[in-house]
Amino acid sequence: MFGPGDLRLVLLALVAEQPRHGYELIKAIEEKFGGTYAPSPGSVYPTLTLLEELGQVAAATTEGAKRLFEITEEGRAFLAENKAAVDGVMERMAMAARAMTGEAPPEVIFEAMHTLKAALRFHRAGWDDAETERVRAILVRAAREIGAGETGEGDGE
């Protein structure tokens, strides 16, 4: 469900909202997916341990073996430095949640996706900071418009 590093970002962002136990984090993610998906404890708890080892969260023992995770200043700094990635994974998660309860797109949409991937792969203008930001903004805007069902300007043809 998540790409490399995505679960780490999601857990850190959720702990930044409010301190939580591991089980509460699993339930929060399940809620974001409308009940259609929940990460396994076998992926959540090792990721929380990693975040703790990196100094991005701190855990306090409460109620027996339960640990309450809180974000640290290092964790807040990491989230701030990776805001675009955090926003992206949250948007992908919301899109996946909608897709899990909806229908698959028509074949012509898959063809358009392959064309977009080819355009990115064969991009020849170079990838300086300005060009990277320009393309990123186009892709994010398109994803938001598609996710919201907006049409944008023109018909794109």
TrEMBL record:
InterPro entries noted in UniProt: Tscrpt_reg_PadR_N, WH-like_DNA-bd_sf, WH_DNA-bd_sf
Organism: Marinibaculum pumilum
Domain Transcription regulator PadR N-terminal, first and last residues per copy: 11-81
Signal peptide as annotated in the record: none
Pfam family, any one: PadR
PANTHER family to which the protein is assigned, alphabetical: TRANSCRIPTIONAL REGULATOR YQJI
Protein name as annotated: PadR family transcriptional regulator
